[in-house]
Amino acid sequence: MNNNNSILTRVAITITPRLNNALYSSLFQQCGGITGFFQESDANIKLLFKENNLTNIQPERSLWLQQAEEELKNMEKHHIQICGIEDPNYPHLLKHCADAPLVLFYKGTLKADESKNIAIVGTRKATELGKTRVRNILQQLADMGYRPNIISGLAYGIDIAAHSACLRLGLRAQAVVGHGLHMVYPASHKNIAEKILAQGGTLLSEFPTCAPIHPTNFLQRNRIVAGMSEAVLVAESPVKGGAMSTARQALSYSRNVLAIPGRPEDSNYTGCNMLIKQNIAALVENVSDILEAVNWEPIPTRPHQTSIDFFSASNDEDLIKQTLTNAGEQNIDQLHQLTRIPVHDLSVLLLKLELEGIVTQLPGKCYSLI
Q1: What is the mean pLDDT of residues 107-125?
Q2: What gap in Å lies between CA 327 and CA 334, rounded to an integer?
Q3: Mean pLDDT over each residue of the chain, to the nearest integer
């Protein structure tokens, strides 16, 4: 079959979710691959289904191919791409999970690099304290020079707090959803999803657009969140919830599980406290605890400037001026993300440029060229 037919057969496998699972990769290997599966005789397929304990699935291959043709039209309409487990851009950590999806749908940028990957998960009914803790941890990681991929599920609460912080800090966000990528659920997060894509992030799903939305989809997608990550941080969770499911999946994949503790009387943290008490999760009080758990090498930082030299210019000053010329008005956090100049040094340089009449400070601690 040609490449177009290969794509068609990949999509067709996703029509039956149970087959879109590496646990059944042996079935396709016996056929010479997914494309070969659709070329086998009916008699051989029935025999292979029986051997692979799939007797409760009717092998309606012609119907699946017809539905896949419609799915390809929807994919083109909504700019959805497809990635197979054997492709070089398939998430490299997920690839080694026994039950990884054989085929993923995605929008945005998907690359199987060796970048650091952390999942941040938690309750949909997050407190302001929980969301603030997430924002602070990501701010500290960014300030220390780390640029991890942050993986979450685009849900209310902790998920969206993590994604929003990534957008503010210029970190790469990857959102794994439990439905087709022709839509965003909840709809109120559509704007965040669009910004994730605009900033070089990714929306991921194992579900085609024709798949019905079912509560079990969201539990199923939790294994992808866990499988893509070096570590899963449970930021705030009661004993029952999707975050706890993700933590258990991470444990089964031998990933690091981390949890932020809370007061014993706070029901929103009973899950976190239980994970720590049972030695499932490492206790996280600050970003140093995360770095110790994942064993990331420290990133060298430049020494802070301790005085202002008003008589010499620097490459950093030129970089600030060029950035403000290209990007327009920016606050100090945005300038830090665009220039990678340490915040302390950046403050000193902005003051110098302001005194020289080159930049002006605007309301909201924003800066622009005069």
Answers
A1: 90
A2: 10
A3: 90
Helix 242-252 crosses helix 270-277 at what angle (to 10 degrees)?
A: 20
3-state secondary structure of 58: coil
Confidence of residue 131 (pLDDT cuts 50, 70, 90): very high
Phi first, then psi, for residue 123 (nearest 5°) are: -70, 150
Of the pLDDT bands very low, low, confident and very high (cuts 50, 70, 90), residue 51 is: confident
**Helix H or strand E encompassing 138:** helix 128-143
pLDDT of residue 307: 44
DSSP-derived 3-state class of residue 248:
helix
DSSP bridge partners of 360? 368
Pairing type for strands 149-152 and 117-122 reads: parallel
Count of other CB atoms within 10 angstroms of residue 144: 14
If you search the block for the tokens 């070096």, which residue do you land on?
A: 230
- List, edge to edge, every strand of the sheet that includes 103-108: 81-84, 103-108, 202-205, 172-176, 149-152, 117-122, 231-236, 256-259, 282-283
List residues bridging with 202 in a β-sheet: 108, 174
